[in-house]
Structures are given as structure tokens and as C-alpha cells.
Amino acid sequence: MSKKTIRPYDGPAGGWGALRSVARHLLEQDVPVHGARTLLSANQPDGFDCPGCAWPDRDHTSTFEFCENGAKAVAAEATRHRATPELFAQYTVAELAGYSDHWLENQGRLTHPMRWDAASDRYLPIGWDEAFARIGAHLNALDSPNQALFYTSGRCSNEAAFLYQLFVREFGTNNFPDCSNMCHEPSGTAMKAQLGVGKGTVLLDDFEIADAIFIFGQNPGTNHPRMLGELRKAAKRGAAIVSFNPLRERGLEKFADPQDKLEMLHNGSTRISSDYFQLCIGGDLAAIKGIIKRTLELDAQAQGEGRERVIDIAFIAEHTRGFERFAADVAAEAWETIEAESGLSRAELERAGDLYAQAGSVICCWGMGITQHKHSVATIHMLGNLLLLRGNIGRPGAGPCPVRGHSNVQGDRTMGIYEKPSPAFLDRLREVFDFEPPREPGHDTVGAIEAMLDGRCKTFFGLGGNFATATPDTDATHRALRGCELTVHVTTKLNRSHLVHGRDAYILPCLGRTEIDIQDSGPQGVTVEDSMSMVHLSAGINAPAAPTLLSEPALVARLAAATLGTRSKVPWLWLVGDYDRIRDKIAEVFEDFHDFNRRVRVPGGFHLPNAAAERRWLNAEGKALFKTHAVPTDLPVHRARASQQQPVFTLATTRSHDQYNTTIYGMNDRYRGVFGERRVLFIHRDDIAALGMNAGDWVDLESLCEDGVERIARRFLLVEYNIPRGCLAAYYPETNALVPLSSFADEARTPTSKSIPVIVHPHVPQAAQSLQASRDIGLVRVD
Ligand SMILES: Nc1nc2c(c(=O)[nH]1)N[C@H]1C(S)=C(S)[C@@H](COP(=O)(O)OP(=O)(O)OC[C@H]3O[C@@H](n4cnc5c(=O)[nH]c(N)nc54)[C@H](O)[C@@H]3O)O[C@H]1N2
Ligand SMILES: Nc1nc2c(c(=O)[nH]1)N[C@H]1C(S)=C(S)[C@@H](COP(=O)(O)OP(=O)(O)OC[C@H]3O[C@@H](n4cnc5c(=O)[nH]c(N)nc54)[C@H](O)[C@@H]3O)O[C@H]1N2
Ligand SMILES: [Mo]
Question: Which pLDDT tens digit goes with each residue over 692-739?
Fold first, then answer.
């Protein structure tokens, strides 16, 4: 383990640091010699789609693009370490639970299907057929299919997702909680209502011609490093890059492109953001409204002086509704409220408004800093309003760009992983497969936890992911999972969800995307959809981590066959013998996938149509809508502040540089200057003083929620940081215990992981009775 140090980093993102970090990870994971070849096959026409993130790559045919995040994700999968039955024989589940998430991950790739044995509290190997038969029998014994939950994480391919939703719907439920519920759900919800489609409208080519790129609540240096390549090119040709973030993220400030030999040789770098607005957490709606207010004021001035209008009157008249009411509301919103709630001055917002008004075409990007708040949907509407004002949708170089996380999270939703499927989609499933799919909406992630807690749901099946650790309210979620009759996880690596299990529990290991997948007809490829709706093929090149592994499509098909038996209308084992057959069925169900097998084999794949990008509005009104929202002044944090004597902070939970969601690769967060420690709390120097504490003190965090439940996360190191006063940041998942299950985004129900009202106490070491609680979060042993 590296030494604990806090040491500010003032170099660029990327550069030699990124190359060194990858070299270290390859060594740590003991990646075999062909690992280098593996890296070179990421995002190549005949290689696999990078499991790192959903950022697209140029035509999917370009030369290898180095990406630290992608390299780590690939190295993690290609590791030589193995978590074999011998490992499980060595430790009871209670003992395993005492280890950290980092340690669990480091045990390596799982090799055998395992079943928990109550008598010895150990996972023991089980044959595939027996596992499927037992799980199927369990599901069939439920009183109703709606007692079962089927979670999906966004790494799974289109083919696996399609078969999975088909199995679950033929089984009889729409209970599809997924990682999207915790991620970009508000983006889909907001855009569907406002613009008629739930996806972004821009393509990479638009980044080449945009005059300005506005980036809200995103840390691409860590989470989407390949995006920095596009931003760098845009910055170099003089486009304005305007960032809104409470933290000054390195990757948004400067970047040294490992692709650029000259920049690397001279230790040079490129400035990324032309303007950086350090707003306060949750202040985006207010800030965007301020930018809009300025734009409308500039428009009124121009009109008064007989100059060309600043807003696009023709576009607004032809394509939108609700402008008059919206403009009146913006005019009525006081600058004082906007300044107080955004944490930015009127002068700063006027500057941002001027940048917006001067730019011929504008792209707005956003990430989790926007989606994980109570008012996320309203904030995304405000972003939509901003774009609509100047017709910045459906023309080159302009449009909304929600930057997705998991590499196929968008595709999984396209394939029907959704708890509220449309009637038209269900009708199509019925026509193609000749069974009656369930119509009743199912549970999302928050609903799934509630339903397990109150006994409405009794079984949990996870296709990928780490539900116990990724979800909010750790104590409640763990109780929910432990209360289940059955928990099953399809997975590549050991994680905490396997240790917080039901009365009957299985771990089913699968192939990763980098591995060769052979079925009846020979080697198979799968398909994925990136954040910009490009669909392309992905084929593994490495030998499977173990001969016992099943591919995800094969695993789902065999489980479906075992569970549904002769009552199924679907030829499961035939379908999975050749994935072209699955794709033919996908093409039958979804019009946009016509001729799927042919089109996906064209290098680069194909683009799914997007009506909003063509200025066709598929919502009920048939128009793009200006959505009116007041700047919120009565959020949980406002109420908590009003009710407390002591300082109440807003805590945002974010990712460090050495993690992939709940997968902890290492203990460093290089760009933020943190080494060897994850339990840190970023805080303004004056706030440390106001608390009467010192940087380096250990503190406990208590979350304030009106439900009265005590939620405490213990032992965080105070780190003085450049962050607005009243705002705190710490890493997820260590802080998930603080996110109340009842606190989620209006309409979209995404947990409010970026705005938790908390108070800070000096750390109190815990007595023995909370050993179980410490075990559950891997705090007992330090590795
Ligand atoms: N290496 C790596 N890559 C990843 C992931 C990973 O964990 N590791 N995860 C993947 C997934 S699933 C996703 S969804 C994406 C996530 O990628 P991002 O969307 O970048 O996610 P976060 O790191 O959670 O936080 C984003 C930023 O929001 C800022 N922020 C916090 N609160 C606010 C706010 O109120 N307003 C504004 N404007 N900003 C705020 C934080 O300072 C941070 O810079 O990345 C994907 N890629
Ligand atoms: N507090 C807080 N909570 C958050 C967030 C936050 O910002 N703050 N972010 C939220 C977001 S954006 C997301 S997307 C969720 C993520 O939630 P999840 O998607 O559930 O979590 P991951 O950590 O991405 O899942 C990692 C696990 O996936 C498994 N895995 C990896 N590759 C494969 C594969 O190829 N196949 C299969 N079957 N399994 C595989 C491994 O077992 C690994 O341990 O977390 C959310 N939770
Ligand atoms: Mo995500």
C-alpha cells in the first residue's frame, strides 16, 4: 500500500503520470505479456469495445487511442490473479467481509460457479446445471413473478441485455432496477418530456465545430479521459470551454495528450477551460438561470437598439412552446436569489451569459454533478431552455450531450432494460415472441430496496454490478439484501454484494468483454451503443480467464431455459448458439435496428436515428418545451440549515482517480493530490477554522434527514481544499451510508448522492458492538 500523503498536484492531466500509472497497474495485475496487445485492441474495428466508459471514439476505426481509464479497466479484466474455489475454502464469508473492497477486487477473476453453504458459512463450488436448476426452482416457487428483482449494470452487451429482458418479461415482471436509475435517469426523464428523446443529440463531429462547449458537473480527466482529446482540439482552435464545477478539476484545466509526441517530449500541456466557474454544490439551476437572464437582457438591449436579436426568434416560433411564460419567470427571478443559490456573482454569470450569447453554436455536456440532486430534472430542463433560446439543438456544432458512464448503459436501456416499458414496445415483444408480457410498471433501484425491506420482493438477481455497495443508505440496503430468500450475482470479480447475501446465494462467474466467446457456430461478437448512439461490434481477443466460464448471453439463455422449461415460447439454446440469431430478433423488435447484422459489420457500425437532432419533437406536445422552474430555496439542505445551530454542509460524493465506481483499483487520487488514503474529506480552509479543527484531523460525518434515522460515516481525514465554503466532497462508496433512501431526484428517483446535508463531528472511535457494521464496509482490516 502506498504511503499516505496529501500533496497538491499542479501538473496537467494525462501526460507521463498517466503512462506511469498504467505501467504500474499492468505490473500489479500481473497482466500477461499479451496484455499490451490487448490494450492495442481496445476500440479497434476487429477488437473489443473498451469497457472503460461510454465516450465514443472516432468512427471506431481510428488508431489506438491511449486512455488511462480504459487501460486500467482492461488490465483489471486481463489480470493473472484468480479467485478460485481454494480461496473460498480458506475464508468464511464473515471473514471475507472484513476485508476492504480493494482487497476483494485484488483476488482476481472468479473461475467457478459457487453456492453459499450455511453450515460452514463458505461458498462451495456447484455445477452450472445444478445452479440453474436450483435458481429456476426458487424463482418458480414465488407466489408471484413480481416478488423477484432483476438488476442490470451497464457493462452488459446488447445481446445479453435483450435476452435478459426477454427472459424476465416472459417470466412475468418488469422489475428492472438498473445502474441508470442511480446515474443519468434524470437526463432521460427531463429530455424525453422537453425534447421528445431521452438521449443526447450531438456527435463527435460537432465537437470539431462548436464555438463553445459548456461543461457542467463532470470530471472527464478521471472518468472520460478520451473526451479530453476532443476538448483539447477544440481549445486549440479557439473554442470557448466553459466549466461549472465546485472543484477545480485538473483535467478541465490543463491536459498533456499522451498521443502528442511533441507535447510529451517537452512536458507541455494545453489549457482546456477558457473560463472556470466554481459554483456551489446544487447551484447549477440557479447559475443556468442567471446565464439565461443575461441572455434575455442582452436580447432586450439589442431589440431596443434595433440590432439583430440575440435569441433565435424564428426557431422559438416554429419549434417551441412556453417561451412567453418562461421569459416572464426568468425576468421575475431576482439576481440576489440567483447569486445566493449558485454561489456565483452577477458579474461572473453575466460573463458566462456573454460567452453563451456570442457563440454561434454551443454544446452543453453534463455528468453526475447535475443528475444526483433533488432538483436534477429541473436543472436539466434549464439546460434545455438555455440551448433552445438560440436554437442550439438540431444543427451542426450544437446540442445537449449527457456524458454516460458505463460503456453500454445507453444500449441496455435501448434493449428494454427499463422498469416502465412503453406499451408499443411490449406489443412488439408479444408479436415477435407470442407471449403476453407484463404491463404493470416494475421497481427501480430505490423501489427495489424498499420492496426487499418490506417483504414484497424476495429474490435478487444481479447481471453485473455491485448493488450492495453502489446503492444509497448502506445499512438499509444491506438489511434488504440479507432479508432475501435468494441472491444471485453474475460477475467477473468478487465484490461486497456477494458477501451481503440472502438465505440461498450464488456467484455465477462470466466471461469479460476482452475474452474470446465461442458458441455452437464459432467465435461470437457482441454489440454496444455509446453515449452518442453509435452501435458497433465488440469481439474479445484473450483466452477466457477459466474454461468453466459462461458468456453472459449463454448464462442468461441457460437460466431462462432451466426456469421457464416447456412453457417458454423462446428457443433459448438455439438463439444463443449464434449471436446473429439474437440480433435478428432485436431487428424484428426494434425498427431502428433493421438489417442489424449487416449494418453492424460495416466498420464503425451505425448511428441510431435521433428525432430531436432532426428537429422533430416526439413528446406529447410535438414541440420542444420551455420549462419554467423557480430557483429552489427549500431543498433538504436549506431546511437542515434552518433547523440547526451548528454549520450544515452540502456533501457531494464523487469518484477518485483510482476507482471504477465500486471497484477500487488503488488508493491514490493523483490529480487531487491524495495518496494512500480514500477516507478523506475535502473542505475549505475557513470552514475547518470555523469548526475549530485542523487539517489532518479525523472526523465523523452525520447526515441530516427529516426521517429521523441516524446515519453516520466514520473516520475521514480533513483535507484543506479549493472548494466553496459550505461545500464538502468525499469519495463514493465510503459515503453511501449517508445518502437516505428516501432522498432522490423528483420524477427520476435518482439518489441525491451529490447533495447530502451533513454535520461534521470530531471522530469517535467505535466500540466493539459495531464490529458487524464495520465488517460490512470492509473497515476491519487494513490491507
Ligand atoms: N475512471 C473511472 N471512469 C468512470 C467511472 C469511474 O468510477 N472511474 N464511472 C463511470 C460512470 S458509471 C459514470 S456515471 C461516469 C461519472 O463521471 P462524472 O459525471 O465525472 O462523475 P463524478 O466523479 O461522480 O462527479 C462529477 C463531477 O461533479 C462535480 N460536482 C459535484 N457536485 C456538483 C454540483 O452540484 N454541480 C456541478 N456543476 N458539479 C458538481 C464533482 O466535483 C465532479 O467533478 O464516469 C464513468 N467513467
Ligand atoms: N454515493 C454515490 N453512489 C453512487 C454514485 C455516486 O456518484 N455517488 N454513482 C452511481 C452511478 S453513476 C452508477 S452507474 C452506479 C454503479 O453501480 P454498479 O454498476 O452496480 O457498480 P459497478 O461498481 O460499476 O460494478 C462493478 C462490478 O461489476 C462486475 N463486473 C465488471 N465487469 C463485468 C462484466 O463484464 N460482466 C459482469 N456480469 N459483471 C462485471 C464486477 O463484479 C464489479 O465488481 O453507482 C451509483 N452510486
Ligand atoms: Mo454511472
Answer: 999 999 999 999 999 999 999 999 999 999 999 999 999 999 999 999
Four-residue CA torsion sign, 636, 637, 639, 644: positive
Domain 83-178+418-594: which topology?
A: Rossmann fold (3.40.50)
* CA of 403, closest atom in ligand 1: 19
**Nearest residue CA, atom 10 of ligand 1?**
405
Q: For residue 458, which of 483, 438, 488 has the smallest C-alpha distance?
A: 483
Q: What is the CATH number of domain 636-776?
A: 2.40.40.20
pLDDT given at position 461: 98
pLDDT in tens, 138-151: 999 999 999 999 99
CATH number 3.40.228.10 is the correct assignment for the domain at 185-403: yes
Q: What is the structure's pLDDT at 211?
A: 98
Cα–Cα distance, 17 to 121 (Å, whole number): 43
- 9, with CB counted inside 10 A (0-12, 13-18, 19+), is middle
Domain boundaries, the chain: 5-77, 83-178+418-594, 185-403, 636-776
- Ligand 1 site residues, Cβ closer than 6 angstroms: 53, 69, 183, 216-219, 222-224, 244-247, 249, 281-282, 284, 367-369, 405-406, 652, 654-655, 659-661, 754
Count Cβ neighbours within 10 Å for each residue of 104-117 and write b for 16 or more, e otherwise: bbbbbbbbbbbbbe
- Residue 64: per-residue pLDDT: 56
Question: Which residues are registered as beta bridge partners of 374?
Answer: none
| pLDDT exceeds 90 at position 62 | no
Per-residue cell: 85: 474455489
Distance CA 20, CA 783 (A): 23
Which residues, 6+ apart, have CB-to-CB distance to 615 below 8 Å?
319, 393, 394
Examine the pLDDT at 355 and tell me if it is beyond 50: yes
Give the percent of the chain with pLDDT over 90: 84
What Cα–Cα distance (Å) separates residue 435 from each residue in 147, 171, 428, 572? Answer: 20, 10, 10, 14
Indicate if ligand 2 lies below 6 Å from the C-beta of 465.
yes
Helices (H), 590-649: 596-599, 636-643
Q: How many CA atoms lie within 13 A of 58 on its CB side?
A: 11
pLDDT tier at 783 (50, 70, 90 boundaries)?
very low
Of 192, 226, 206, 188, residue with least CA distance to 362: 206
pTM score = 0.96
The CA distance from 524 to 522, in Å, is 6
What the block records as the C-alpha cell of 370 is 447535475
